[in-house]
Backbone:
């Protein structure tokens, strides 16, 4: 049964509101990360199944850098929802999150390359890059693998993914990594939507 469809806000195409309500309810009944990721992924797949809810101001790309628009910050700081808008060919640095995260594809496609640490401290690619097509969801966390680099799979079109994290991710102190294993502190913040 759909959790989203039975919650207030789901009517009239306000799917995001229904998703936020359902995710809040999930976190109120569930504190176990594997179950949050499993049940949260099901909610996210449901949100992604119909692409009619993302406001244009949260879907605009910037030719210079990928955009991270805050869609919702839980008042208690338990989670946040962010739209990532990738211009053609744009990519993140190698980075971590320090909290659990769910990444769901809404439009276009993206590539996620995981990294792992070697005994000598260097970072190496952990398998092949995963390609996420619309509707696909992947998870990250310090428990299951938290370091990756994400890029738009397309060189000639915009892609958009919807991310959910177990904190107000724009304020989290985390790290950017280099392949020699060195790192620097990183706080992502959020992009400011153009309201015009
Ligand atoms: Fe990431």
Residues:
């Amino acid at each position: 049964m759909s959790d989203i469809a039975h919650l207030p806000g789901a009517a009239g195409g306000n799917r995001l509101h229904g998703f936020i309500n359902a995710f809040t309810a999930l976190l109120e009944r569930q504190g176990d990360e594997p179950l949050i990721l499993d049940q949260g992924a099901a909610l996210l797949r449901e949100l992604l199944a119909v692409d009619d809810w993302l406001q244009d101001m949260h879907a605009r790309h910037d030719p210079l850098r990928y955009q991270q628009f805050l869609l919702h910050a839980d008042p208690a700081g338990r989670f946040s929802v962010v739209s990532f808008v990738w211009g053609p060919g744009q990519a993140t640095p190698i980075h971590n999150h320090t909290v659990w995260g769910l990444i769901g594809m809404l439009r276009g496609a993206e590539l996620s390359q995981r990294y792992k640490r070697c005994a000598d401290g260097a970072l190496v690619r952990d398998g092949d890059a995963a390609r996420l097509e619309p509707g696909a969801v992947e998870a990250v966390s310090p428990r299951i693998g938290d370091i990756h680099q994400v890029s738009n799979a397309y060189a000639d079109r915009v892609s958009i993914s919807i991310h959910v994290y177990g904190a107000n991710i724009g304020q989290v102190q985390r790290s950017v990594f280099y392949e020699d294993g060195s790192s620097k502190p990183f706080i992502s913040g959020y992009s400011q939507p153009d309201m015009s």
Summary: The longest strand covers residues 110-117. Residues 95, 97, 148, 150 surround fe (iii) ion (CB under 6 Å). The domain at 55-186 is CATH 2.60.120.10 (Jelly Rolls).
